[in-house]
Each structure stands twice: as C-alpha cells, then as structure tokens.
Amino acid sequence: MGKTAYRVGILTLSDKGSCGEREDESGPLLAKLVSAIADVVRYQVIADDQEEIILLLNNWVDDLHLDFILTTGGTGLSPRDVTPQATESVLDYQIPGMAEAMRSASLNITPRAMLSRALVGVRQQTLIINLPGSPKAARENFEVLLPVIPHALAKLQGDSADCAVDVD
To answer: Which of 44, 64, 84, 166 could form a Cys-Cys staple with 117, CB 3.0–4.6 A?
Structure first.
C-alpha cells in the first residue's frame, strides 16, 4: 500500500519545552506514529499561550492547508493549559465522538482521564486533534483515533463513495 498524500502538522504546547528547559518527547513520538498515514510537514514547540496557539493553528489551516493537525499538551486543568480554549476558538465545528472515544479508552487506564479537556474538530477541511502532553497518554489517545482518521480525512476532502447517487 502506497503512502497517502496527507499532510500533518504537529504542535507541542509546553512552556518549558519552548525555552529549552525540557525535551519534547511527545511530538517526535507522534511523528513516528503518524508516518504510516501522513507526511509531517510542520513541527513546532511553542509556549502555552492562547493567542500564539490561535495564530499558528489559523496559519497552518488557512495558509498551509494541512490535512490535519495534532496538538500535544495543554489539555489539563492547570491555569496555563489553554489548548482547548485556543482550539475551540478556531474550529468551525467539533467532532465530540472522537474526543469522547479518547477519554473512554483512557478511563480504562486511569481515572484521571476524566480531567482531559481535549477537543477534536474541523476548521475548513482540516481535522484538529488535541492530545495529552505525556508521551504515554499521547500514544494511547492517538492510537484510539488512528483507525478512523483516514476515513475522516477522506470525508473532509469530499469523498462521497458511501452514498452513490443514481443519475438515470
């Protein structure tokens, strides 16, 4: 099976990572996991700053036209965890079932999963997925969604194969 033409951006939100005090482990891990279905064309580590997150997400969608974006970090309860707020402000609509699936699967591992505020949604034709910041949780959550991401992307790009229309 050949590699798809999907283009993904990975955005790590970390105050310490953005200033070199902590090495980002989740972003590179996600890049490896996503390589089976997409090419990573953007990767960046920035601080937990709502306005900066909004500007970058808008740029990656509106100007770069990425197929999907994975964010990692900033989905918890800390006052600096602003990824969901930033994401919500740029989305055209949410896909709650995907976020619920991540939380549901994570609840089988830890009761702390119910504290996640991660969102999944769409801006234009770009799928945006918030993932936790820890490498273990980012992997677990991403693997829950991986089986449906190609189908979701095909639908966002206009695939109507599931509903053939008879033109006779």
So the answer is: 84
pLDDT per position as a tens digit, 99-141: 999 999 999 999 999 999 999 999 999 999 999 999 999 999 9
Question: Is residue 152 left, alpha or beta, with left meaning phi > 0 and alpha meaning psi from -120 to 50?
Answer: alpha
Please report whether residue 166 resides in a domain: no
How far, in Å, CA of 27 to CA of 95, rounded? 22
Instruction: Compute φ and ψ for 48, nearest 5 degrees.
Output: -75, 75
pTM of this prediction exceeds 0.85: yes
Candidates 121, 114, 117, 109; CA nearest to 145 is: 121
pLDDT in tens, 66-79: 999 999 999 999 99
Count of domains for the chain = 1
- Contact at 8 Å (CB) between 12 and 73? yes
The CATH number linked to 44 is 3.40.980.10
**What range does the domain containing 103 cover?**
6-156
pLDDT digits (tens, 9 = 90+) for 19-49: 888 899 999 999 999 999 999 999 999 999 9
Residue 24 sits at the vertex; the CA angle it makes with 100 and 45, to the nearest 5 degrees, is: 80
